[in-house]
Amino acid sequence: MKITGAVLEAIGRPAPYAQSKPISISELELDPPGPGELLVRMEAAGICHSDLSVVNGVRSRPVPMLLGHEAAGIVEQLGEGVDDVKVGDRVVMAFLPRCGECSGCKTNGRLPCVPGTAANTAGTLLSGAIRLHRNGEPVYHHLGVSGFATHAVVDRRSAVPVPADLPAPVAAVLGCAVLTGGGAVINAGRPEYGDDVIVVGLGGVGMAAVLTALGLQKGRVIGVDALPAKLDRVRELGADAAYTPAEAAEIGLRAPVVIEAAGHPKAFESAVELTAPAGVTVTVGLPHPDARSQISPAGLTSEARMIVGSYLGSAIPAVDIPKYAELWRAGRLPVERLISDTIRLDDINTAMDHLARGEAVRQVITF
Description:
- Helix content is about 30%, strand content about 25%.
- The chain is an alpha/beta fold.
């Protein structure tokens, strides 16, 4: 079938992207779903730093690639062997499918799926197939989803059914921002009653971590970011306090659970310093692979502090996404407040500029 999608044509073009236009809006051919796959009509897709990291070259991926990994839509066709969802179901995309059998899948969310990671790196679906083409040439899949398009074919294990009353933009944001940020708090940080939580880096994932921590009602929730506008926004979301890294250091701020969601070496260093004795620093940000930080091993030893890496919020999407949906329905996770703007697919290059300049929390494409 013919679809329209946002295709990254070249990696590393200079910003502003509204001028260099690394992403084109193209007509493509989408093959029918193969065995174990779904055809999904996209309703909403969030724009995440993981998309930007491919555009600017921080993450190396094959091109041309149809971008987008945080999305929600309606199932329109089932591939052979799929019998646990039905046409008409709303599904949330998970950007790392889980085969359920490998060594990573046996860690209960702590480690990513090994075949899923390999497929994402190669730009294919979990089966190794490529269902996207343009002028007879393959177009690669982004993280098994390619959600910046009118339709997508995804592996069944990349889709999580959600209740029909969950709005599509909310559902989309659950698939990455909330799954990653919320999971960093619940699955990795595990605050106990009375524990304060500090979140360093207040983009979409960081703000989702703040909202999740607020919903848990354990202790104070504090935001840290270098941009004053982000501090204003986190206060509006209900954070108990908000500081720049310099302000936080000056007052000696520390907490037993600190989430680093900026993906920057300096932010990681700040997060470690903000962690109280016997506390845990959870890092979910993804800086350039060559990036390095400096921390004091003696401080970790003498204060019995831990550093924990959390990819995809240490989550099992099929288990965790329905939990977040229920928290939203209960009024404890107002995910819609993360959405800073809704845009058209044609605005994708400008949207990447807004994201790169730190001017957006979550921009959502609606179809």
